Amino acid sequence: MPTSTSVLAIENKMISENGVQQVELLNGVEDLYGGIIIDIEEAMESEAFTFSLSASVLQWKQQGKRAVWIKLHIQLVNLVEPSVKEGFRYHHAEPDYLMLVNWISDSTSTIPENASHRVGIGAFIVNEKREVLVVQENNGKFKGKGVWKFPTGVVNEGEDISIAAIREVKEETGIDTEFVEVLAFRQSHRSYFTKSDLFFVCMLRPLTFYIQKQDTEIKAAQWMPFNEYAAQPFVQKHDAFSSVADVCLTKLETEYVGFSPVPRTTASGKTSHLYLSRRDLNNLAPEHGQSEFPG
User: Fold this and answer.
1) What are the residues whose beta carbons fall under 8 Å from the beta carbon of 118, sequence distance 6 or more?
2) According to its UniProt record, which protein family does this protein belong to (predicted)?
3) Per-residue pLDDT tens for 164-176?
C-alpha cells in the first residue's frame, strides 16, 4: 500500500474547462512511488465529485503521476459508481473504507495486488506424560466428525505468529503456554475467498494443565496420548495431517530443531522477528563477522 510523503499544494486551486467552467481540484497526497492518494472523509455530491475527479486526474497525468488511489470511507457509497466510470477499480476493502486505484501512466502498471495470503497456526503442546492437547470443533469442516486435532486459529493483523499461537490456545482451551518454535509450515492455495494460506505448526510449552474450553467454538478438549492422536483414521488417511504428526513425533524423539523467533529491527526502525534454526549458529556466526543470536 502507498505511503504518504508530502501534501500537494493544490487545495482550492481552480482550473478552467473550455475557458468557461471552473472545477475545484481534489486534495491529493504524493506517495513514494510516483502516485497520488486521495482520502475522502466528508460527503460530496456525485456530480461535483465526478467533475473534480476527472479534472484532477487530467492534471496529475500531465504532471507525470503514475497512479491515483481513492480511499472512500464506508458512508461515501455514492462516490463508488462515478469512480469506477472514471476508470478506477477496486483494490481492497476494510471494515471502514474501500480503496480504489487507477493506473494513469502510459507505462506498464506496477500496482501491487491486494494481500494474497491468510496466515494460520496449529499448536503442538505436549505434557510430561507425552500427552498432546487436542480439541474437537463445534463449527467448520470438522464439526460432528469426531476428529481430535491441534488447537488452530488465524493470525490477526499486526500480530506475531508466536503471540497468535499462545492466544489461540488460551482462547480455545484456557491453557497458558510459552512459545518454543515453528516446527514446519505449509502453503496451500484458493482456500479462503480464493486467497492462499500459510499454516505454521508451532510447538508450545504448557505452563498450566487444567482445561477450560471455549464453549462457542470448541465441543471438547483433552490431553490425549500422542500415539492415540496420531493413530486416528482421519490423521492416517490424510497426508497433510500424518506428515505433521510425523514431524511432531520426530521432535519428541530426536534433536529435530525448528525455527525460533529472534527480534530484529528493520531499516525503518520497526521491530520484527526473524524465525531461524539456532542450533550451532552462534558457533558459526563469529567466523563470518556476524552478531550472535540470543538463545
Assistant:
1) 154, 191, 192, 195, 196, 197, 198
2) Belongs to the Nudix hydrolase family.
3) 999 999 999 999 9
Contacts of residue 14, defined as CB under 8 A and 6 or more positions apart, other chains included, come to 22, 23, 24, 25
Residues 6+ apart with CB under 8 A from 142: 136, 149
pLDDT digits (tens, 9 = 90+) for 55-93: 999 999 999 999 999 999 999 999 999 999 999 999 999
Long-range pairs of 276-280 with CB within 8 A, sequence gap ≥ 24: 279/255
Which DSSP string do the residues of the chain spell out, in sequence order?
---EEEE-S-TT-EEEETTTEEEEPPP-EEETTSEEEEEE-S---HHHHHHHHHHHHHHHHHTT--EEEEEEETT-GGGHHHHHHTT-EEEEEETTEEEEEEE-SSSPP-PPPSP-EEEEEEEEEB-TTSEEEEEEESSSTTTTTT--B--EEEPPTT--HHHHHHHHHHHHH---EEEEEEEEEEEEEEEETTEEEEEEEEEEEES-------TTTEEEEEEEEHHHHHT-HHHHH-HHHHHHHHHHHHHHHS----BEEEEEE-TTS-EEEEEE--TTHHHHGGGGTPPPPP-
- Per-residue pLDDT tens for 204-229? 999 999 999 999 999 999 999 999 99
Domains parsed from the chain with CATH numbers: 4-103 (3.40.630.30), 117-253 (3.90.79.10)
Question: Catalytic one among 86, 159, 168, 171?
Answer: 171
